[in-house]
Specification:
Order of helices and strands: HEEEE
Largest sheet: 2 strands, antiparallel
Number of strands: 4
Helix content: 10-25%
Strand order of the largest sheet: 1-2
């Protein structure tokens, strides 16, 4: 198995790790219900995408109209 000829310095090691970070996910507002959703995806809460109903969303017990 091949081995490195020289030890990499701590600075060189850390420079290669500069992109190993968590990024904040970009979100947009749903045009129908106004909740934050991931862009280019159907809304999990109301089931719409670009103004059209594309997914039937089941309501929870406390959200059902009485």
């Amino acid at each position: 198995m091949a081995l490195p000829r020289r030890k990499h310095s701590k600075a060189r090691r850390d420079k290669s790790r500069t992109h190993w970070r968590l990024r904040v996910r970009s979100t947009t507002q749903c045009g129908q219900c106004g909740k934050l959703i991931l862009p280019h995806r159907a809304c999990r809460f109301c089931g719409t995408y670009r103004g059209r109903q594309v997914v039937a969303v089941a309501m929870k017990k406390d959200e059902r109209p009485s």
